[in-house]
Each structure stands twice: as structure tokens, then as C-alpha cells.
Amino acid sequence: MSQDGSIRRTPEEAADRANQRIQGTFAGVLGMEFTLLSSDRVEATLKVRQEHKQPWGILHGGAVMTLADTVAGAGAYMNLARGQETVTVELKINLIGAVREGVIRAEAVPLHRGKTTSIWETRITDETGKLVAVSLSTHLVLDQKSP
């Protein structure tokens, strides 16, 4: 247990917990799976399925963008103080390589972690390590609203 009374988790334990949390959400329905989740780095994979492809058989950019947004957003979340939440306010992506099958892997790292925003860079690669996409996203830090 940490000094503030919260339970400390390894990045792998945090990833397992996040995988449970995304069940039934858009990222979960796509089949995304976190493999590492920490305040300094987030990693996740997505196995390419037929329903992820555009009509010409290539992985849809929307699936790639969802993976990028989700891993960066999870990283922003890992840097919040108690009573805060975060939303993506900007996401820019360059789709560099086409993928038709296999597993893609995303790795997000922070470029800036401030009081009101954080900026994350996400690199997505295929199984051979070839770069598929790079994104840059800005996440706004908000105070949680009472229900």
C-alpha cells in the first residue's frame, strides 16, 4: 500500500485490471488488450480481425486510431490525482503502413504532464516491428463532477 492509502500495482497488474474495465466498451469490443500500464508507458495490442478491415482488406484507420487514443488516454489517466478525470481534446495521427493481418502493438509515452493537460506520443507497429502509425494527443485534466 502506498502512503496515500491506495493499493500499489505492478504495470502488468494494472494492465490486467484495465482489461477487465474495458470489457463491454468500444476498445473491449474491438478486442484491444493492455499488456503494460504505468504512468510512464502504456502498451497494448490488437489482433486484426475481418471486421476491423476496410472494404479493400486493409486494417481500417479508425481501428488504429482507437487503439492510439485508448493507450494514450490510459496513460493520461494513470497520472491523475484522486478526484480528477481526463478526456482527449486533440488527436493527430499519421497512418504510415498498411496492415492486412496479424497483431499490431501500440506504445504510448508522455511528452508533457502538466496540471491541466498531458501530451502523449503513440507509436503503433506490426509484428515485424514495422511502423504502422504515429499519433500525438492532448488530454485535458478535469475535476470529477459529483453525481
DSSP, total strands: 6
Which stretches are low in confidence, meaning pLDDT under 50 for 5 or more residues running?
1-5
Helix percent band:
10-25%
SSE run: HHEEHEEEE
**Quaternary form:** single chain
Count up the helices: 3
Mean pLDDT metric: 93
Query: How would you sum up the global shape?
Result: globular
Describe this structure as you would to a colleague.
With 147 residues, the chain is an alpha+beta fold. The chain has three helices and six strands; from the N terminus they run ααββαββββ. The chain has a six-stranded antiparallel β-sheet. A hairpin with a 5-residue loop joins β5 (117-125) and β6 (131-143). The chain is globular.
Question: What attributes does this structure have?
Answer:
alpha+beta; 147 residues; disordered N terminus; 6 strands; single chain; globular; six-stranded antiparallel β-sheet
Summarize the SSE layout with pairings.
Layout: H1 11-21, H2 26-30, E1 33-37, E2 42-47, H3 61-78, E3 84-95, E4 103-113, E5 117-125, E6 131-143
Antiparallel strand pairs: 1-2, 2-4, 3-6, 4-5, 5-6
